[in-house]
Amino acid sequence: GFDASGHLRLAVQKKGRLADDTFDLLKRCGLTLSQSKNRLYARVQELPIDILLVRDDDIPALVASGASDLGIVGGNVFEEERAGGRLQDRVPMVQKLGFSRCRLCIALPKEKNYSGPRDLDGMRIATSYPALTDKWLADNGVEGAESVVMNGAHEIAPRLGVADAVCDIVSTGGTLDANGLAVAETILNSEALLIGGKLSEEKAKIAEALKLRIEGVQRSRD
Ligand code: ATP
Ligand code: ZN
């Protein structure tokens, strides 16, 4: 069954961009998964590790609650949960993983000139990162601006008139460009992170074995 005692639990994205890179990392680490990715969990054959297959957004909370010992999640999701005060320092970052790199950016319609944060005064900013957006606005002295939470299709919000700007993940900028938007500010540089809380002595040893394998993969990439 799932609750095999002593096994380290690692929460990863079940399906998506982060999942592709995560499964690739595990494979390069010489780890094979015993179950299909369609299940709720998989077992690592070479180490006593159970992999929880979940939505990326749920990973920080699963680790904070102790339901999972470790997680692999984008810095964007991790920092949003932290900025929102939902982790209460129970989930320290363990290791930067160097993949799934992207930027969280504020973007404006191309025809708007941008010369600095004050140009955002009074704007409504469509985002699924309200805590990071509001914190950046406050830190940069922007007045009267507010984030409008949207869970997708941010890039059409300005054209729909529901927002003046967006704050969203950008990798190539192609999606922004296709929607008549241009980056004004980068508020976070993100990469995948291995996160985890306090572990028992036994689980810490398993985590150490996993980290050594990850470091081996990283060295071979440099
Ligand atoms: P889920 O169903 O798990 O909630 P999702 O739709 O929120 O998935 P994905 O689009 O798969 O998420 O992205 C997951 C993570 O991958 C993002 O939070 C970010 O850290 C990273 N990411 C997103 N877009 C890119 C990109 N274009 N290039 C590289 N990494 C990205
Ligand atoms: Zn998600």
From TrEMBL:
Record key words, sorted: Amino-acid biosynthesis, ATP-binding, Cytoplasm, Glycosyltransferase, Histidine biosynthesis, Magnesium, Metal-binding, Nucleotide-binding, Transferase
Cofactor: Mg(2+)
EC numbers: 2.4.2.17
Domain called ATP phosphoribosyltransferase catalytic: residue spans: 55-215
Pathways per UniProt: Amino-acid biosynthesis; L-histidine biosynthesis; L-histidine from 5-phospho-alpha-D-ribose 1-diphosphate: step 1/9
Magnesium recorded as keyword: yes
Name this polypeptide is given: ATP phosphoribosyltransferase
Organism in which the protein naturally occurs: Parvularcula lutaonensis
Residues of the full protein shown: 7 to 228 of 302
